[in-house]
Amino acid sequence: MLSFLIVIILGSILLSLPISSARGDPVEYIDALFTATTSVCVTGLVTLPTVTTWSIFGQVVILVLIQIGGLGIVTIVSAIMIGMNRRLGLKSRILLQDAFNLNSISGVVVFLKKVVIGTFLVEGIGALLYMTVFIPRYGVRGIWISVFNSISAFCNAGIDVMSENSLCEYATNPMINITTSMLVILGGIGYVVWWDVIRVAKNFRSLKLKCFSRLFLHSKIALSATGILLLAGAVLFFVFEYNNPLTLKDYSLFDKIQIAVFQSMTTRTAGFASIPQENLTNASSVVSLMLMFIGGSPVGTAGGVKTVTFVVVIFAALSAIKNEDEVKMFSRGIEKTAISKAAAVITVSFMIMFISTVLLSAVSDANILDIAYETVSATATVGLTRNFTPSLNIWGKIIIITTMYLGRVGPISLLIAFNLKMKKKNIITVPVEQISIG
Hints:
By secondary structure, the protein is an all-alpha fold. The chain has one domain (2-418). It has helices at residues 2-15, 29-40, 50-53, 56-71, 73-83, 90-100, 108-138, 141-154, 174-189, 191-202, 204-207, 217-241, 253-266, 282-294, 307-321, 336-363, 368-379, 394-420; strands at residues 328-329, 332-333. It has a two-stranded antiparallel ribbon.
Protein backbone atom coordinates (compact mmCIF):
# COMPACT_ATOMS: atom_id res chain seq x y z
CA MET A 1 0.00 0.00 0.00
CA LEU A 2 2.86 2.35 0.83
CA SER A 3 4.67 1.68 -2.45
CA PHE A 4 1.57 2.56 -4.48
CA LEU A 5 1.11 5.72 -2.43
CA ILE A 6 4.73 6.81 -2.97
CA VAL A 7 4.49 6.30 -6.74
CA ILE A 8 1.22 8.23 -6.85
CA ILE A 9 2.73 11.19 -4.96
CA LEU A 10 5.87 11.24 -7.13
CA GLY A 11 3.72 11.04 -10.25
CA SER A 12 1.46 13.87 -9.07
CA ILE A 13 4.48 16.09 -8.43
CA LEU A 14 5.81 15.47 -11.96
CA LEU A 15 2.39 16.11 -13.50
CA SER A 16 2.02 19.37 -11.57
CA LEU A 17 5.16 20.79 -13.23
CA PRO A 18 4.74 23.28 -16.11
CA ILE A 19 6.63 20.93 -18.45
CA SER A 20 3.84 18.38 -18.07
CA SER A 21 1.15 20.79 -19.26
CA ALA A 22 0.34 21.20 -22.95
CA ARG A 23 -0.16 24.96 -22.43
CA GLY A 24 2.95 25.44 -20.27
CA ASP A 25 0.91 26.50 -17.25
CA PRO A 26 0.94 24.24 -14.19
CA VAL A 27 -2.18 22.11 -13.78
CA GLU A 28 -3.93 22.39 -10.42
CA TYR A 29 -2.38 19.90 -8.00
CA ILE A 30 -5.69 18.19 -7.22
CA ASP A 31 -6.09 17.34 -10.92
CA ALA A 32 -2.47 16.21 -11.15
CA LEU A 33 -3.03 14.00 -8.10
CA PHE A 34 -6.26 12.64 -9.60
CA THR A 35 -4.49 11.81 -12.89
CA ALA A 36 -1.54 10.16 -11.11
CA THR A 37 -3.93 8.07 -9.00
CA THR A 38 -6.08 6.98 -11.93
CA SER A 39 -2.89 6.03 -13.84
CA VAL A 40 -1.20 4.03 -11.09
CA CYS A 41 -4.49 2.40 -10.13
CA VAL A 42 -5.09 1.71 -13.87
CA THR A 43 -8.60 3.10 -13.56
CA GLY A 44 -9.06 5.61 -16.38
CA LEU A 45 -11.34 8.20 -14.82
CA VAL A 46 -10.02 11.66 -15.73
CA THR A 47 -11.06 15.15 -14.65
CA LEU A 48 -9.17 16.72 -17.57
CA PRO A 49 -8.88 15.45 -21.19
CA THR A 50 -5.59 13.58 -21.53
CA VAL A 51 -5.01 14.47 -25.18
CA THR A 52 -5.35 18.26 -24.77
CA THR A 53 -4.21 18.78 -21.16
CA TRP A 54 -0.84 17.06 -21.07
CA SER A 55 2.32 17.61 -23.08
CA ILE A 56 4.36 14.73 -24.50
CA PHE A 57 6.37 14.73 -21.26
CA GLY A 58 3.17 14.56 -19.22
CA GLN A 59 1.81 11.75 -21.39
CA VAL A 60 5.06 9.80 -20.97
CA VAL A 61 4.77 10.19 -17.19
CA ILE A 62 1.17 8.92 -17.35
CA LEU A 63 2.18 5.95 -19.51
CA VAL A 64 5.00 4.99 -17.11
CA LEU A 65 2.58 5.21 -14.19
CA ILE A 66 0.11 2.99 -16.06
CA GLN A 67 2.79 0.38 -16.76
CA ILE A 68 3.93 0.42 -13.14
CA GLY A 69 0.36 0.16 -11.92
CA GLY A 70 -0.48 -2.64 -14.32
CA LEU A 71 2.50 -4.84 -13.53
CA GLY A 72 2.81 -3.77 -9.90
CA ILE A 73 5.64 -2.02 -8.08
CA VAL A 74 7.04 -5.24 -6.63
CA THR A 75 7.17 -6.79 -10.11
CA ILE A 76 8.89 -3.76 -11.66
CA VAL A 77 11.51 -3.43 -8.90
CA SER A 78 12.23 -7.17 -8.90
CA ALA A 79 12.57 -7.22 -12.69
CA ILE A 80 15.05 -4.32 -12.54
CA MET A 81 17.08 -6.15 -9.88
CA ILE A 82 17.19 -9.30 -12.01
CA GLY A 83 18.18 -7.19 -15.04
CA MET A 84 21.11 -5.87 -12.99
CA ASN A 85 22.11 -9.45 -12.15
CA ARG A 86 21.11 -8.96 -8.53
CA ARG A 87 20.00 -12.08 -6.68
CA LEU A 88 16.58 -11.85 -5.06
CA GLY A 89 16.57 -12.65 -1.37
CA LEU A 90 13.96 -14.65 0.51
CA LYS A 91 11.96 -11.55 1.50
CA SER A 92 11.82 -10.37 -2.11
CA ARG A 93 10.65 -13.78 -3.25
CA ILE A 94 7.92 -13.81 -0.60
CA LEU A 95 6.80 -10.35 -1.74
CA LEU A 96 6.63 -11.62 -5.32
CA GLN A 97 4.66 -14.66 -4.20
CA ASP A 98 2.16 -12.38 -2.47
CA ALA A 99 2.05 -9.92 -5.37
CA PHE A 100 1.18 -12.70 -7.82
CA ASN A 101 -0.99 -14.52 -5.25
CA LEU A 102 0.90 -17.76 -5.88
CA ASN A 103 0.56 -20.80 -3.65
CA SER A 104 4.28 -21.51 -3.49
CA ILE A 105 7.54 -19.57 -3.50
CA SER A 106 9.08 -22.18 -5.77
CA GLY A 107 9.73 -20.92 -9.32
CA VAL A 108 8.63 -17.37 -8.54
CA VAL A 109 11.66 -15.80 -10.30
CA VAL A 110 11.03 -17.82 -13.47
CA PHE A 111 7.38 -16.78 -13.29
CA LEU A 112 8.43 -13.13 -13.01
CA LYS A 113 10.63 -13.37 -16.10
CA LYS A 114 7.77 -14.94 -18.07
CA VAL A 115 5.40 -12.18 -16.94
CA VAL A 116 7.71 -9.36 -18.02
CA ILE A 117 8.62 -10.93 -21.37
CA GLY A 118 5.00 -11.91 -22.07
CA THR A 119 3.73 -8.43 -21.18
CA PHE A 120 6.12 -6.57 -23.49
CA LEU A 121 5.55 -9.11 -26.28
CA VAL A 122 1.76 -8.74 -26.20
CA GLU A 123 1.95 -4.95 -25.85
CA GLY A 124 4.35 -4.82 -28.81
CA ILE A 125 2.03 -6.88 -31.02
CA GLY A 126 -0.90 -4.71 -29.97
CA ALA A 127 1.01 -1.54 -30.85
CA LEU A 128 1.84 -2.90 -34.32
CA LEU A 129 -1.81 -3.76 -34.97
CA TYR A 130 -2.92 -0.29 -33.82
CA MET A 131 -0.38 1.30 -36.18
CA THR A 132 -2.24 -0.10 -39.20
CA VAL A 133 -5.07 2.30 -38.32
CA PHE A 134 -3.42 5.19 -36.49
CA ILE A 135 -0.39 5.84 -38.72
CA PRO A 136 -2.51 6.37 -41.87
CA ARG A 137 -4.74 8.67 -39.79
CA TYR A 138 -2.22 10.60 -37.66
CA GLY A 139 1.08 10.10 -39.48
CA VAL A 140 4.20 9.75 -37.30
CA ARG A 141 2.17 10.68 -34.20
CA GLY A 142 0.21 7.48 -34.81
CA ILE A 143 3.22 5.48 -33.55
CA TRP A 144 3.02 7.16 -30.14
CA ILE A 145 -0.76 6.80 -30.04
CA SER A 146 -0.44 3.09 -30.87
CA VAL A 147 2.16 2.43 -28.18
CA PHE A 148 0.19 4.40 -25.57
CA ASN A 149 -3.11 2.69 -26.40
CA SER A 150 -1.57 -0.77 -26.42
CA ILE A 151 -0.03 -0.42 -22.95
CA SER A 152 -3.17 1.28 -21.63
CA ALA A 153 -5.42 -1.47 -23.02
CA PHE A 154 -3.25 -4.35 -21.77
CA CYS A 155 -3.04 -2.78 -18.31
CA ASN A 156 -6.83 -2.25 -18.39
CA ALA A 157 -6.33 1.49 -17.81
CA GLY A 158 -8.68 2.87 -20.46
CA ILE A 159 -6.73 6.13 -20.95
CA ASP A 160 -6.01 7.27 -24.52
CA VAL A 161 -4.28 10.20 -26.24
CA MET A 162 -6.46 10.43 -29.36
CA SER A 163 -9.59 12.35 -28.47
CA GLU A 164 -11.83 13.46 -25.63
CA ASN A 165 -14.51 10.82 -26.33
CA SER A 166 -12.38 7.67 -25.94
CA LEU A 167 -12.92 5.20 -28.83
CA CYS A 168 -16.40 6.40 -29.84
CA GLU A 169 -15.03 7.53 -33.20
CA TYR A 170 -13.86 3.94 -33.86
CA ALA A 171 -17.01 2.17 -32.64
CA THR A 172 -17.44 0.33 -35.94
CA ASN A 173 -13.76 -0.26 -36.75
CA PRO A 174 -13.13 -4.05 -36.49
CA MET A 175 -9.33 -3.68 -36.19
CA ILE A 176 -9.59 -1.29 -33.24
CA ASN A 177 -12.29 -3.37 -31.57
CA ILE A 178 -10.49 -6.69 -32.02
CA THR A 179 -7.05 -5.34 -31.01
CA THR A 180 -8.39 -3.56 -27.93
CA SER A 181 -10.46 -6.58 -26.89
CA MET A 182 -7.48 -8.91 -27.36
CA LEU A 183 -5.23 -6.73 -25.20
CA VAL A 184 -7.84 -6.21 -22.49
CA ILE A 185 -8.78 -9.88 -22.27
CA LEU A 186 -5.17 -11.10 -22.28
CA GLY A 187 -4.25 -8.59 -19.60
CA GLY A 188 -7.32 -9.36 -17.52
CA ILE A 189 -7.40 -13.15 -17.82
CA GLY A 190 -4.34 -13.51 -15.58
CA TYR A 191 -0.78 -14.71 -16.14
CA VAL A 192 -1.41 -18.04 -14.41
CA VAL A 193 -3.98 -18.89 -17.08
CA TRP A 194 -1.51 -17.92 -19.83
CA TRP A 195 1.08 -20.45 -18.80
CA ASP A 196 -1.49 -23.14 -18.07
CA VAL A 197 -3.02 -22.80 -21.55
CA ILE A 198 0.46 -22.85 -23.13
CA ARG A 199 1.32 -25.97 -21.10
CA VAL A 200 -1.74 -27.78 -22.40
CA ALA A 201 -1.30 -26.45 -25.96
CA LYS A 202 2.20 -27.96 -26.15
CA ASN A 203 0.61 -31.40 -25.84
CA PHE A 204 -2.36 -30.59 -28.10
CA ARG A 205 -1.90 -33.55 -30.45
CA SER A 206 -1.74 -36.13 -27.69
CA LEU A 207 -4.59 -34.57 -25.70
CA LYS A 208 -6.93 -34.29 -28.71
CA LEU A 209 -10.32 -33.04 -27.47
CA LYS A 210 -9.52 -33.24 -23.75
CA CYS A 211 -7.57 -29.97 -23.62
CA PHE A 212 -9.98 -28.14 -21.31
CA SER A 213 -10.10 -31.02 -18.82
CA ARG A 214 -6.28 -30.94 -18.55
CA LEU A 215 -6.27 -27.34 -17.35
CA PHE A 216 -5.90 -26.51 -13.67
CA LEU A 217 -9.06 -25.67 -11.76
CA HIS A 218 -8.14 -21.97 -11.54
CA SER A 219 -7.84 -21.72 -15.33
CA LYS A 220 -11.10 -23.59 -15.89
CA ILE A 221 -12.98 -21.19 -13.61
CA ALA A 222 -11.32 -18.06 -15.05
CA LEU A 223 -11.86 -19.03 -18.69
CA SER A 224 -15.43 -20.27 -18.17
CA ALA A 225 -16.48 -17.22 -16.14
CA THR A 226 -14.84 -14.84 -18.61
CA GLY A 227 -16.56 -16.47 -21.59
CA ILE A 228 -19.98 -16.62 -19.92
CA LEU A 229 -19.86 -13.03 -18.66
CA LEU A 230 -18.66 -11.67 -22.02
CA LEU A 231 -21.39 -13.54 -23.91
CA ALA A 232 -24.16 -12.76 -21.43
CA GLY A 233 -23.18 -9.10 -21.27
CA ALA A 234 -23.07 -8.79 -25.06
CA VAL A 235 -26.51 -10.39 -25.46
CA LEU A 236 -28.06 -8.16 -22.80
CA PHE A 237 -26.52 -4.98 -24.21
CA PHE A 238 -27.66 -5.97 -27.71
CA VAL A 239 -31.24 -6.51 -26.53
CA PHE A 240 -31.47 -3.47 -24.23
CA GLU A 241 -29.86 -1.04 -26.70
CA TYR A 242 -31.21 -2.43 -29.99
CA ASN A 243 -33.82 0.31 -30.45
CA ASN A 244 -32.11 3.02 -28.39
CA PRO A 245 -31.74 6.02 -30.76
CA LEU A 246 -28.84 7.34 -28.67
CA THR A 247 -26.75 4.17 -29.02
CA LEU A 248 -27.43 1.25 -31.41
CA LYS A 249 -30.66 1.97 -33.30
CA ASP A 250 -29.11 3.52 -36.42
CA TYR A 251 -26.29 0.96 -36.85
CA SER A 252 -26.28 -2.12 -39.07
CA LEU A 253 -26.76 -5.55 -37.50
CA PHE A 254 -23.03 -6.35 -37.68
CA ASP A 255 -22.08 -3.02 -36.10
CA LYS A 256 -24.69 -3.49 -33.37
CA ILE A 257 -23.15 -6.85 -32.52
CA GLN A 258 -19.55 -5.60 -32.38
CA ILE A 259 -20.51 -2.55 -30.29
CA ALA A 260 -22.48 -4.76 -27.86
CA VAL A 261 -19.53 -7.16 -27.57
CA PHE A 262 -17.13 -4.26 -27.01
CA GLN A 263 -19.36 -2.79 -24.28
CA SER A 264 -19.46 -6.16 -22.54
CA MET A 265 -15.67 -6.46 -22.80
CA THR A 266 -14.83 -2.93 -21.66
CA THR A 267 -16.92 -3.18 -18.50
CA ARG A 268 -14.48 -5.88 -17.36
CA THR A 269 -12.30 -2.97 -16.05
CA ALA A 270 -10.95 -1.87 -19.46
CA GLY A 271 -12.47 1.61 -19.34
CA PHE A 272 -12.52 2.37 -23.08
CA ALA A 273 -15.89 3.52 -24.41
CA SER A 274 -17.20 3.07 -27.95
CA ILE A 275 -20.59 4.59 -27.04
CA PRO A 276 -21.31 7.37 -24.50
CA GLN A 277 -22.14 5.66 -21.22
CA GLU A 278 -24.66 8.36 -20.25
CA ASN A 279 -26.77 7.36 -23.29
CA LEU A 280 -27.25 3.76 -22.12
CA THR A 281 -30.67 2.62 -20.97
CA ASN A 282 -31.15 2.06 -17.24
CA ALA A 283 -31.18 -1.70 -17.79
CA SER A 284 -27.83 -1.62 -19.61
CA SER A 285 -26.38 0.65 -16.93
CA VAL A 286 -27.33 -1.83 -14.20
CA VAL A 287 -25.78 -4.69 -16.18
CA SER A 288 -22.63 -2.57 -16.56
CA LEU A 289 -22.51 -1.98 -12.80
CA MET A 290 -22.59 -5.73 -12.16
CA LEU A 291 -19.93 -6.54 -14.77
CA MET A 292 -17.68 -3.72 -13.52
CA PHE A 293 -17.93 -4.93 -9.93
CA ILE A 294 -16.93 -8.49 -10.94
CA GLY A 295 -14.06 -7.33 -13.16
CA GLY A 296 -11.35 -9.56 -14.63
CA SER A 297 -9.41 -12.55 -13.31
CA PRO A 298 -6.75 -12.85 -10.58
CA VAL A 299 -3.00 -12.44 -11.18
CA GLY A 300 -3.55 -10.09 -14.12
CA THR A 301 -3.92 -6.38 -14.80
CA ALA A 302 -7.70 -6.19 -14.32
CA GLY A 303 -9.56 -4.85 -11.31
CA GLY A 304 -12.85 -5.74 -9.66
CA VAL A 305 -13.43 -8.52 -7.16
CA LYS A 306 -12.30 -10.94 -9.92
CA THR A 307 -14.15 -13.69 -11.76
CA VAL A 308 -12.76 -16.58 -9.72
CA THR A 309 -13.65 -14.80 -6.46
CA PHE A 310 -17.22 -14.20 -7.63
CA VAL A 311 -17.70 -17.77 -8.88
CA VAL A 312 -16.35 -19.28 -5.65
CA VAL A 313 -18.80 -17.24 -3.56
CA ILE A 314 -21.71 -18.20 -5.84
CA PHE A 315 -20.88 -21.90 -5.64
CA ALA A 316 -20.37 -21.66 -1.88
CA ALA A 317 -23.88 -20.19 -1.60
CA LEU A 318 -25.32 -22.94 -3.80
CA SER A 319 -23.58 -25.59 -1.68
CA ALA A 320 -25.11 -24.06 1.45
CA ILE A 321 -28.55 -24.08 -0.17
CA LYS A 322 -28.09 -27.76 -1.07
CA ASN A 323 -26.83 -28.44 2.46
CA GLU A 324 -23.57 -29.84 1.12
CA ASP A 325 -20.46 -29.91 3.28
CA GLU A 326 -18.06 -29.33 0.40
CA VAL A 327 -17.91 -26.74 -2.38
CA LYS A 328 -17.22 -28.46 -5.69
CA MET A 329 -16.42 -27.19 -9.18
CA PHE A 330 -15.37 -29.29 -12.17
CA SER A 331 -15.25 -32.36 -9.90
CA ARG A 332 -12.78 -30.66 -7.58
CA GLY A 333 -13.21 -29.39 -4.04
CA ILE A 334 -12.50 -25.78 -3.03
CA GLU A 335 -10.45 -25.09 0.10
CA LYS A 336 -12.28 -23.34 2.92
CA THR A 337 -9.51 -20.73 3.13
CA ALA A 338 -10.16 -19.80 -0.50
CA ILE A 339 -13.87 -19.38 0.26
CA SER A 340 -13.07 -17.17 3.25
CA LYS A 341 -10.72 -15.01 1.16
CA ALA A 342 -13.32 -14.69 -1.59
CA ALA A 343 -15.99 -13.60 0.89
CA ALA A 344 -13.57 -11.12 2.47
CA VAL A 345 -12.59 -9.55 -0.88
CA ILE A 346 -16.21 -9.10 -1.97
CA THR A 347 -17.18 -7.71 1.43
CA VAL A 348 -14.33 -5.17 1.50
CA SER A 349 -14.96 -4.09 -2.10
CA PHE A 350 -18.69 -3.69 -1.48
CA MET A 351 -18.02 -1.64 1.67
CA ILE A 352 -15.64 0.67 -0.21
CA MET A 353 -18.19 1.09 -3.00
CA PHE A 354 -21.11 1.70 -0.63
CA ILE A 355 -19.30 4.23 1.57
CA SER A 356 -17.97 6.04 -1.50
CA THR A 357 -21.48 6.22 -2.98
CA VAL A 358 -22.93 7.66 0.22
CA LEU A 359 -20.16 10.26 0.57
CA LEU A 360 -20.28 11.28 -3.09
CA SER A 361 -24.08 11.61 -2.86
CA ALA A 362 -23.62 13.92 0.12
CA VAL A 363 -21.28 16.30 -1.73
CA SER A 364 -22.81 16.10 -5.22
CA ASP A 365 -26.20 17.10 -6.57
CA ALA A 366 -26.38 14.43 -9.25
CA ASN A 367 -28.44 11.46 -10.41
CA ILE A 368 -27.88 8.44 -8.17
CA LEU A 369 -27.22 6.23 -11.21
CA ASP A 370 -24.44 8.59 -12.34
CA ILE A 371 -22.95 8.53 -8.84
CA ALA A 372 -23.18 4.75 -8.51
CA TYR A 373 -21.60 4.33 -11.95
CA GLU A 374 -18.72 6.56 -10.86
CA THR A 375 -18.07 4.86 -7.52
CA VAL A 376 -18.34 1.30 -8.85
CA SER A 377 -16.03 2.27 -11.69
CA ALA A 378 -13.53 3.71 -9.21
CA THR A 379 -13.78 0.80 -6.77
CA ALA A 380 -13.28 -1.79 -9.51
CA THR A 381 -10.68 0.44 -11.27
CA VAL A 382 -12.68 0.40 -14.50
CA GLY A 383 -12.67 3.98 -15.73
CA LEU A 384 -16.09 4.18 -17.38
CA THR A 385 -18.17 7.23 -16.50
CA ARG A 386 -21.53 8.71 -17.43
CA ASN A 387 -19.70 11.98 -18.15
CA PHE A 388 -19.74 12.74 -14.42
CA THR A 389 -16.02 12.83 -13.61
CA PRO A 390 -15.28 16.26 -15.20
CA SER A 391 -18.01 17.86 -13.05
CA LEU A 392 -16.64 16.61 -9.72
CA ASN A 393 -16.01 19.30 -7.12
CA ILE A 394 -12.96 19.28 -4.84
CA TRP A 395 -14.60 16.94 -2.31
CA GLY A 396 -15.84 14.66 -5.04
CA LYS A 397 -12.31 14.42 -6.49
CA ILE A 398 -10.88 13.54 -3.08
CA ILE A 399 -13.54 10.84 -2.57
CA ILE A 400 -12.89 9.26 -5.98
CA ILE A 401 -9.10 9.47 -5.52
CA THR A 402 -9.42 7.61 -2.21
CA THR A 403 -11.84 5.09 -3.72
CA MET A 404 -9.53 4.33 -6.65
CA TYR A 405 -6.60 3.87 -4.29
CA LEU A 406 -8.50 1.58 -1.91
CA GLY A 407 -10.03 -0.29 -4.81
CA ARG A 408 -6.59 -1.00 -6.25
CA VAL A 409 -4.74 -1.98 -3.06
CA GLY A 410 -7.46 -2.88 -0.53
CA PRO A 411 -8.42 -6.43 -1.53
CA ILE A 412 -4.84 -7.21 -2.60
CA SER A 413 -3.44 -6.11 0.77
CA LEU A 414 -6.17 -8.09 2.48
CA LEU A 415 -5.12 -11.24 0.62
CA ILE A 416 -1.48 -10.63 1.59
CA ALA A 417 -2.53 -10.27 5.23
CA PHE A 418 -4.33 -13.59 5.03
CA ASN A 419 -1.29 -15.26 3.47
CA LEU A 420 1.16 -13.92 6.04
CA LYS A 421 -0.89 -14.57 9.15
CA MET A 422 -0.56 -18.34 9.18
CA LYS A 423 -0.96 -18.83 12.89
CA LYS A 424 -0.52 -22.09 14.68
CA LYS A 425 -3.83 -23.62 15.65
CA ASN A 426 -4.67 -23.43 19.32
CA ILE A 427 -5.45 -26.63 21.14
CA ILE A 428 -7.91 -24.79 23.36
CA THR A 429 -10.72 -23.10 21.45
CA VAL A 430 -13.48 -20.74 22.51
CA PRO A 431 -16.97 -22.16 23.08
CA VAL A 432 -19.16 -22.48 20.00
CA GLU A 433 -22.72 -21.25 20.08
CA GLN A 434 -25.48 -21.56 17.47
CA ILE A 435 -26.82 -18.44 15.69
CA SER A 436 -29.58 -17.89 13.15
CA ILE A 437 -28.62 -17.01 9.57
CA GLY A 438 -31.00 -15.64 6.94
